[in-house]
Amino acid sequence: MMPGMEVTRSRRSAEKREHWKQVADEWKTTGLSRAAFARQRGLRPNHFTWWLRRLSEEEAQTFVEVPAADNGPVGISAETGVTVVVGGVEVRLSPGFDEETFARVLALVEQRR
Question: Do 85 and 75 touch, CB atoms closer than 8 A?
């Protein structure tokens, strides 16, 4: 591979992802079904659905660092766990929760938004 090609592919990939994220965000505001929106935009419905799934999976794998409060360490209580609200859906995590299952739940919640 020629020098610089990896950067070009990476940049192109990021540009594609950003384009499809914008298309997906637009679709969410229309109230149309995926198929109707795709037809209206001249997109292949299967291709559009594939990108929606890919974006959803990427978002489910995105982690955000939350800074600790000044009043002590942050963690999941051994007795109570933690409650997370995602897209209006409340998810209660018990101590020792399975991260893979939680990621799948987040992906499902995101798909239904």
Answer: no
